[in-house]
Amino acid sequence: MIKKGDTVRFLNAVGGGVVVRIDEAKRLIYVEDEDGFEIPVLERECVSVGEINKETNFIKKDFSSKLPEPQLPASQGEVLEVRSQPIIETPEGETLKAFLAFFPVDIKQLQTTAYDCYLINDSNYFLYYNIVNGENDQWESVANGMIEPNTQEELTSVTKEQLNAWEQIRVQLIPLKIAKNYVPQEVIDAKIKINVVRFYKLHSFVANDYFDDLALMVNIVSEKENQKLSDISPDEIKKAIKNQTKDLFETENQEKNSVLTIVSLDLDQPRKLKDPVKGGIEALFERGCMLPAAFAY
Fold it and tell me: Name one Pfam family in it (predicted).
C-alpha cells in the first residue's frame, strides 16, 4: 500500500519521485519529481521503492532486517538460545534455496572497487554455513556461522586484490529446523568456480528478488547440481552409452528370434510328410484351396 512520503517509480514511463498527496476516490497519487512538478498517476502504474542514491541513480540497499551481530560461540555445556519469535514458513520454503550476492561498493568504478558479499537463505531452514576459498590443500574459512530462515546476512567485504582468491570457493551448508520435527535435507558441499572477469562487467550485476540494488548472484544449490554432472568422467559416459547400445541390440535380436520361431513352427508340418510336394498339395486341399488341373493326380 503506497502512502504519502513514499518514494515511487513509474511502471509505464521513465522517472518517479515522492508521493505528496493521494486521491483515494480516483485511486490517483500525486508524485513530485526532482524538478518540483506534481505528476498524477494511477496507483497501479507505480511501485514503491527505497531511497534513490543520487550518485549512482540506483536504489539504496536497505539492510534494516539484517540479523544482529553474531554472538560468541556458546561455551561447552551451554545451550544455544532459540529466538522467541515464531518462524513464518511457506510451502515453497521447503525447497532449499541459497545464494551468494556481491554488491560493488562503487558501481561506477568496477575496475577498482571492493564488493560486499551477502548470503541469502530463501528457505524454511536454519543453515549452518562455512565459506572457504583457496586451492589444492590450502583453504581458508572466510565466513562461518548460522543464518535464520528467509533472511540475508553480510559475510565479508572483498577487495580488488582479493578477487583472485574467490575464483574457487567452497560453500558448505547444513540445513536444520530447531525445536520441531522436519524432513532432513541433503548437506550441501558445493565447489564453485567464479569467473572473476564478471566483476568488471556492468551487465553481470542484475535485478533480483532479494535486494533493491543490482547484484552478481551465485545460486549455490544449482552450482552443486552442476558439480554432480561435471564429476561424471568420460569413461563413465562411454560405459553408459555402450551398455545402452548393448541392451538395444539384445532387444532387437530377441524380436528377430521370435519371428524366426513363428516361421519355423509354420513350416514344420509339411516337413514331417514323406512326400513334401504331395503332402503340401494335400495340405492345401485340406484348407479348401483350388488348384489348376495340371496339379491333379
Answer: DUF2027
Cα separations (Å) of 23 from 6, 19, 49?
15, 11, 20
Q: Which option is the CATH number for 1-49: 1.10.10.10, 3.40.50.720, 2.30.30.30, 3.20.20.70?
A: 2.30.30.30
d(C-alpha 47, C-alpha 141), whole Å: 40
> What does the pLDDT look like over 51-77, one tens digit per residue?
555 554 444 555 444 444 555 554 444
Q: State the Cα–Cα distance between residues 176 and 184, nearest whole angstrom.
A: 7
Edge-to-edge strand list for the sheet holding 28-32: 38-42, 28-32, 16-23, 7-10, 46-49
**CA-based R_g, the chain, Å:** 36
CA distance 60 to 216: 16
Q: What is the pTM of this model?
A: 0.52
Q: Which class is domain 88-230?
A: mainly beta
